Amino acid sequence: MDIAKLGEFRLIRELTKDIKIKNSSTLCGVGDDCAVMHYPDSEVLVTSDMLMEGVHFDLTYTDMEHLGYKAAMVNLSDVFAMNGTPRQLIVSVAMDKRFEVEDMQSLYHGLSMACDKWGVDIAGGDTTTSRTGLALSITCIGEAARGDIVYRNGANETDLICVSGDLGAAYMGLQLLEREKSVYYGQVEELERKLKEARAQGDQARVRQLSHELNGMSDFRPDFSGREYLLQRQLQPEARGDIIARLREAGIRPTAMMDISDGLSSELHHICQQSHCGCRIYEKNLPIDYQTAVTAEEFNMNVTTCALNGGEDYELLFTVPIGDHEKVEALDDVRQIGYITREELGCMLIARDGGEFELRAQGWNPLAEESSADGKQ
Amino acid sequence: MDIAKLGEFRLIRELTKDIKIKNSSTLCGVGDDCAVMHYPDSEVLVTSDMLMEGVHFDLTYTDMEHLGYKAAMVNLSDVFAMNGTPRQLIVSVAMDKRFEVEDMQSLYHGLSMACDKWGVDIAGGDTTTSRTGLALSITCIGEAARGDIVYRNGANETDLICVSGDLGAAYMGLQLLEREKSVYYGQVEELERKLKEARAQGDQARVRQLSHELNGMSDFRPDFSGREYLLQRQLQPEARGDIIARLREAGIRPTAMMDISDGLSSELHHICQQSHCGCRIYEKNLPIDYQTAVTAEEFNMNVTTCALNGGEDYELLFTVPIGDHEKVEALDDVRQIGYITREELGCMLIARDGGEFELRAQGWNPLAEESSADGKQ
């Protein structure tokens, strides 16, 4: 259905009609000048992320539902990364005329699925047009008791450096999708070239045959079997609220924490810079999934580089006092990858062969010259 | 300076280095996964607005500083419209390669000027690229004691309907700017046509003369003298926190309130719909500035229609119990324009000649078919 016919207010009503408020802190959601919230006993956490079509996502291989899910999750991830609990999501969308009411419903469905998983309310936002492309801006509001909040600046010398899950998989997922996209467009281009040729030659039988093949391209379904995990990591990442809960149960309070969105190297530099310290991490300790390793090999890429700089892992990077070593050891899905040092010692990677390299923060820079061309650099 | 060379983190540092936190509720601003705020004794208000180039603003006549100022003010306006106090601003910007570091500095300068006026802190956000165009998403966080919050749904039969300031001026400002823009492009086109002709004829003297004139067009400065107020209302609107303060001083608590962004008619419908009531407003009571009236005349537009549907006034529309009539009467810059009726009576406009018309909510619909073509409809 055409969005213009429905109008902004009816569209918002349509999109938000099934929303049921889950948090007692959400006093008033969609439908007034502001959302109203109640946080008398804790601090309020607010984070915001902007996702632009062609830069942060590509609708040729991301559907609207996955996009909504991921957009919500990356914001929830920021609240978990402060050791907080996400409570409300404010959703702003600008879309051009390609989009229909059904697209917006899919987007909201994805957003809702992510929010439902963590008991978060969609509490408001803005819905408007853009000249070209889809723009999404999500703000997430959460809470934490003052003493529970974990900043980036609390790491101390000898602290252990830990990461949850595994690294580099989302980046390899993106490589797979990009490759299939270029294969697809290559085939379409080739068919179009042949079709033009056949038309010029007046070969009607061949024109019919090629037209048929070209139409068939819309059913193009690349075979990703065996690589599902990588695609899921790229298209449908999960915020690690489960790790936050388990750290709490285990009585572990990280000294510094953040989520890995731009790549481990880049995030480690943020923690070290803000905590005025250095670090040593061990290549052999980096958690890497089997599919990531195999696919990196296939793409002739260094898997360690992918794990260090790939980004979009949305895993948690945190430091704990060395005394918590055994408690962390007992946690599933958390790996100790190194330790914090004095600032003068810099940020170092110890390779498998014992060689030492300075860790360079070459995480994804969305403002760099080439970013819109290759998505990552 | 080129933004790509600076990179995201250094750009953010550059833009936020002079920010000094003004509110005790702002515990941690720019530089972590979330901003952290403290609101133990009041409710938290959150509002978000998305502004897209070519839809909500036109950089041919809006400079970056004005854009920042306006983007901040329209969000502060939403917090005032709940009878709250704005405290923090979260700023997300996506820009294409046309923009340089200096543009971002101007934008932040405008944002800061608006924030400084109302003691608001810039507490975080996101800075990234877009494929084409500038996108701005602003979230404003504020506070209000629970009993002070004014929603849209509290209007009662016999309540007086009031508006601050005057209406329709921002819309007439937009008409002026659009006219000058088309005059400018018309002249450029005409010169280019003549230049092409002269070149074809090999008339070198005329080519030199026309080239000179074409270069001179970059100094094109339309004469807006006598219309400064209209331009200011369009380019540099003010959030009416002063009215909120004076209502409080006067001991007036509105029963319903919102700010006028889409036009008086549209907003009145929101209040009536949410409060389950109707309204009667009087054409003769609508506050209209002299420049607005003169310019509407010049454009052959009905000034009442402009005042009812123009939008972007960012004035406050509110209802008060009829017993507050004298208190409101004593307030500068607030006009009583009508009263609330039973729902069955609908939303009515009483014309100067006594005729009654149903008020139609034909405020700006940013999702309508023609919106990107003419900005307003």
The largest interface is: A-B, 72 and 72 residues
- How many alpha or pi helices of chain A? 13
| Order of strands, widest sheet of chain A | 8-10-7-11-9-12-13
Radius of gyration of chain A, in Å, reads 23 Å
N-to-C SSE series of chain A? HHEEEHEHEEEHHHHEHEHHEHEEEH
User: Residue-averaged pLDDT of chain A, rounded?
Assistant: 90
Structural category of chain A: alpha+beta
Query: How would you sum up the major sheet of chain A?
Result: 7 strands, mixed
Counting DSSP E segments of at least 2 residues, the number of strands of chain A comes to 13
What would you call the shape of chain A?
flat
Instruction: Work out the oligomeric state of the chains in this entry.
Output: homodimer
Low-confidence stretches of chain A: 369-377
Q: How far do the termini of chain A sit from each other?
A: 39 Å
Helical content of chain A, roughly? 25-40%
**Strand residues, percent of chain A:** 15-25%
For the structure shown, list the relevant keywords.
homodimer; 377 residues; alpha+beta; 4-stranded mixed beta sheet; 13 helices; flat
Notes on the protein architecture:
The structure is a homodimer of 377-residue chains. With 377 residues, chain A is of the alpha+beta class. Chain A contains 13 helices and 13 strands. Chain A has helices at residues 3-6, 8-16, 64-80, 101-117, 169-201, 204-216, 228-235, 241-249, 264-275, 290-298, 303-309, 325-329, 371-374, and strands spanning 26-28, 35-38, 43-52, 85-95, 121-129, 135-144, 160-164, 256-259, 278-282, 316-320, 334-341, 347-350, 356-358. In chain A, β12 (347-350) and β13 form a beta hairpin. In chain A, α2 (8-16) packs parallel to α4 and α5 (169-201) crosses α10. The first copy, chain A, is flat. Chain A starts with a helix and ends with a helix. Chains A and B meet through α1, β2, β3, β4 and β5 of A and α1, β2, β3, β4 and β5 of B.
